[in-house]
UniProtKB/TrEMBL annotation:
Chain residue ranges for the region called Disordered: 1-21
Top-level taxon of origin: Bacteria
Protein name in the entry: Type II toxin-antitoxin system Phd/YefM family antitoxin
NCBIfam families with a match to the protein in the record: phd_fam
Transmembrane segments: none
Family stated for the protein in its record: Belongs to the phD/YefM antitoxin family.
């Protein structure tokens, strides 16, 4: 699903049509607010996406280190077995 460029609205439109604009934000629309023709801010929805495209997820993890599950398990078991205060009982 392609994202759309935010719609530009003036400060006056934001003030006069705030109810409709907020409903549009709830539906997922974004806005760039302008004052005297100059962009001054963005109004974006905070709702989290439930679907992340595969290519985007792969790109996010492309630089992540490779984990060895056996070493991870061993390291966790060792950490759990240690006294958090370094005492030798």
């Amino acid at each position: 699903m392609a994202e759309h460029a935010p719609r530009e609205i003036t400060q006056r439109e934001l003030r006069n049509e705030s109810g409709e604009i907020m409903r549009s934000v709830e539906r997922g629309e974004s806005f760039t607010i302008t004052r005297n023709g100059t962009p001054i801010g963005r109004l974006i929805p905070l709702r989290r996406r439930t679907f992340v495209p595969r290519a985007e997820a792969m790109a996010a993890f492309a630089t992540a280190p490779v984990l060895d599950p056996d070493k991870l398990r061993s390291d966790l078991d060792t950490a759990i077995d240690q006294d958090p205060f370094g005492r030798d009982w």
